[in-house]
Amino acid sequence: MFVALGLVGAIAVTVLLLMVSPAAGAITLAAILFGGAIALLAGSHAGSTTYDCPNCGHDFKIDAATDLLSPHTLTAKWLLCPKCDKHVWAKERSGS
Fold first, then answer.
1. 52: β partners
2. Domain ranges of the chain
3. DSSP state, residue 1
4. Each residue's pLDDT tens digit, 9-28
5. Cβ distance 90 to 79 under 8 Å?
6. Inter-CA distances, 24 with 6, 12, 48, 85, 90, Å
7. Which residues contact 17 (CB under 8 A, 6 or more apart)?
8. N or C: which end of the chain has fewer CB within 10 A?
9. Any idea what the Cα angle at residue 75 is, between residues 34 and 58, rounded to 5°?
10. How far is Cα 79 from Cα 41, in angstroms, rounded to an integer?
11. Is this prediction's pTM over 0.85?
12. What letter would DSSP give residue 74?
């Protein structure tokens, strides 16, 4: 519900900016579209990737917000293991 209201608000602001200043409106629209694309990519990645805890060996998935905001390297993320409740550099395992 709140996401829909936020989207409606963002569209309304963009329309107003396009009427007042086409350049500012175009930049705002580009930022909204870019943010939406990043959110979709994070959701897709989170849904198709599992992580292995090096401490207890537990395999687990994370949500899109955690996927987007967690510190990471090319092959691991700094995550909280739901089984052993420790922060670890969990290794990424795709396709599970």
1. 59, 91
2. 2-94
3. -
4. 777 777 777 777 777 777 87
5. yes
6. 19, 14, 36, 46, 41
7. 24, 25, 28
8. N
9. 110
10. 19
11. no
12. S
The first and second tokens of residue 75, run together, are 């092959």
Cα dihedral across residues 28, 29, 34, 37: positive or negative: positive
- Tokens for 3? 């996401």
Assigned token pair, 67: 């996927």
Q: Are 48 and 94 in contact (CB under 8 A)?
A: yes
Q: Which residue has the tokens 């989170």?
A: 46
**Token pair of 15, please?**
């329309």
* Number of other residues whose CB lies within 10 A of the CB of residue 11: 12
**Beta-carbon count within 10 A of 78 CB:** 12
Instruction: Judge whether 30 and 5 are in contact, CB under 8 Å.
Output: no
